[in-house]
Write the structure tokens for this entry.
Amino acid sequence: MNAPLPAILKFDVQGLVQAIAHNHANDGLGQLTLSPPQWDMLATYMQPFALMQGQVLIEQGAMDRSLYLLESGSLSVHYEDQKGRVRLAIVGAGSVVGEGSFFSHLPRNATVQAAAPSKVWCLTPIRFTELANRQPAIALEIAMALGAVVARRLANRPKRIAVT
């Protein structure tokens, strides 16, 4: 799933911080307000990686519960019914996907793939549990920001199924 990283591609959590700060979309992570040292700590619990355009990040029906924060690029969210693929949303830098299964323990209800080359930060449930045990204030801040994203997506009828 993860693309090999070109030698010039660098990951720094400040890129993610800036993407979140500049995302003013309704379902952005703008409510995630961490101090610079908290961001540095959070980065140690996440795994950054690159996606090439068209690469699948989340498969509909999968039992994976990982959470993905998008630093750059864009992701297409869609599901497949009997008639084929239906696009639900394009998620931009500074937002998140995977929050539905992260909280619910249910299978993924949509497929997410890179609509453009993207940088993504992954937070697995195991690493989130470790974070919650060692840095509860950071974990609570993340949980509250994710809850706000879920609430806003659920309030928007066309995006309800986009809670992945």
Observations:
- The first strand starts at residue 47 and ends at 51.
- Helices lie at 13-22, 36-43, 99-104, 125-134, 136-155.
